[in-house]
Amino acid sequence: QVRVVESGGGLVQPGGSLRLSCAASGRIFSINVTDWYRQAPGKQRELVASITSGGYTNYADSVKGRFTLSRTISRDNAKATVYLQMNSLKPEDTAAYYCKTRRVDGSDWGQGTQVTVSS
User: What is the pLDDT of residues 61-93, one digit of tens each?
Assistant: First the structure.
């Protein structure tokens, strides 16, 4: 199993930037893909971006060119962190953002972090 913890959310003005972090611990070398999802009030959860263990990335059309994923592993190999750099934020980016790690034998979700884009 993998423990997943998100952080980095907050309130930002339109056009601003935030960097979200998804820290995974436990069986980190069993993780094949890490996804970022978001869910706005009254809407379905949607996939925002994904990164594979090999560094291949994929983005939803709504965030392409504005959001960027990166991935690091701690020196002691105890933690894998995926960052979601969000630039040129828009009010429609307001949502709870969730990280999901996928393994061959299952997946794990974090508790989410709130992003609010408002003036």
Answer: 999 999 999 999 999 989 999 999 999 999 999
- 23-58 pLDDT, tens per residue? 999 999 999 999 999 999 999 999 999 999 999 999
Q: What is the DSSP string of the chain?
A: -EEEEEE--EEE-TT--EEEEEEEEESGGGEEEEEEEEE-TTS--EEEEEEETT--EEE-TTTTTTEEEEEEE-TTSSEEEEEEEE-S--GGG-EEEEEEEEETTEEEE---EEEEE--
> Among candidates 37, 26, 19, 22, which has minimal Cα distance to 3?
26
Q: Could you identify the residue written with the tokens 């034998």?
A: 105
Measured distance CA(49)–CA(35) in Å, rounded: 6
